[in-house]
Write a structure and sequence with these properties.
By secondary structure, the protein is an alpha/beta fold. The chain is about 40% helix and about 20% strand. The chain is globular and about 45 Å long. Keywords: Hydrolase.
C-alpha cells in the first residue's frame, strides 16, 4: 500500500507499507528516498508491518523550503507514528536516518521503541577538533555545498558510486540519480549542512533501547571506527560488520542484512 500522512498543513509524508505485526520503519539517508529500501519491504512484511517513508522534501513527500533539519524530520516521524497508531516500533536508520532515530529518542523518549538498527553512520559527520574520525571538515562541507549548487548531477554520480564497494551498473546509477535529484538544490544544501553538523556524541550513553550497529568494511564513506565508537558509547549495543559492503549493506549484501536484522529483532 502506498499512501500519505499529513504531518502539518501542506506537508504530506509519503510511505509504503506491507504486512502485519510489529512495525519496522526504514529511514533513508540525506537526499535519498524510501526506494533504497525496496529490497527490505517484502522480506520484512513476512513477519512485521514493514514501512518505508520519505522524509520531508525527499522522494515523493512534499518538497518545502522550511523545516529541513534532522530535528524536524524526527518530529515528522513522531507524527507519522502517532497518526498510524504504531506501537512497539523498530526504527532502522541508515546514514542521516540514524540521526533522525537519535533525535526522535532525544525529543520523544524510547517508551514506544522496541529497538533500533543503525546503518553506517557516525555519532557526528563533522570532524570536530576532538573527533578526528568525522567525515567532513569545513573545507569539504563547503566544497560539497558548492557542487550541489553548480554541478549537482555529476557530483552526485560520483557520490553514489562512492557508497558501494563494487562498481554500479548504469541502470542502478540512473534510478539512484533520479531519486537524489528530486528535491531543489536549495533544499539539498540546507539539509546537507544541518545533518553534517549535528552531534550526538553526548547523547549516546543515554540510549537504553536494544541497538544493532550495521557497518560495511569498505571505508570509502564511513570508517568502521565509527561503529566501534558507537558500540563503546551505546550500552549493550551489538556491532555487525559486513565484509563485502561499503555504505549500503542492505543493497550490497541484502540477504545477509535482512537475516541479521530479522534475527536481532526476534531475539530482543
Amino acid at each position: 500500500m502506498m499512501a500519505y500522512v499529513t504531518v502539518e498543513q501542506g506537508i504530506d509524508i509519503y510511505y509504503e507499507e506491507k504486512g502485519t505485526g510489529r512495525p519496522v520503519i526504514f529511514l533513508h539517508g540525506v537526499w535519498m528516498s524510501s526506494r533504497f529500501f525496496e529490497k527490505q519491504l517484502s522480506y520484512f512484511a513476512e513477519n512485521y508491518r514493514s514501512i518505508l517513508l520519505d522524509f520531508r522534501s525527499h522522494g515523493r513527500s512534499s518538497h518545502v523550503h522550511h523545516g529541513n533539519t534532522v530535528a524536524t524530520y524526527a518530529k515528522d516521524l513522531h507524527a507519522c507514528i502517532e497518526k498510524l497508531d504504531l506501537k512497539d516500533v523498530v526504527l532502522v536508520g541508515w546514514s542521516m536516518g540514524a540521526f533522525v532515530v537519535w533525535d526522535y529518542i532525544r525529543q520523544f523518549g524510547s517508551e514506544n521503541i522496541h529497538s533500533t538498527i543503525i546503518v553506517d553512520e557516525l555519532a557526528s559527520d563533522f570532524k570536530w577538533p576532538d573527533f578526528d574520525i568525522g567525515a567532513f571538515d569545513i573545507a569539504t562541507l563547503s566544497a560539497f555545498m558548492t557542487e550541489i549548487q553548480t554541478n549537482r548531477s555529476e557530483f552526485l554520480t560520483g557520490f553514489l558510486t562512492s557508497m558501494f564497494k563494487d562498481e554500479l551498473k548504469p541502470d542502478e546509477v540512473a534510478w539512484m540519480l533520479e531519486e537524489v535529484t528530486k528535491m531543489p538544490e536549495s533544499i539539498a544544501s540546507a539539509i546537507l549542512f544541518d545533518q553534517s553538523i549535528v552531534d550526538y556524541r553526548g547523547f549516546l550513553p543515554s540510549i537504553t533501547v536494544p541497538t544493532l550497529l550495521c557497518f560495511g568494511r569498505e571505508e570509502k564513506v564511513i570508517p568502521v571506527a565509527a561503529g566501534e565508537h558507537l558500540k563503546e558509547n551505546i550500552s549493550g549495543s551489538q556491532l555487525e560488520i559486513f565484509e563485502n559492503s561499503c555504505h549500503c549493506p542492505f543493497l550490497e549484501e541484502t540477504e545477509r542484512f535482512n537475516e541479521v536484522v530479522d534475527r536481532f529483532i526476534q531475539t530482543e
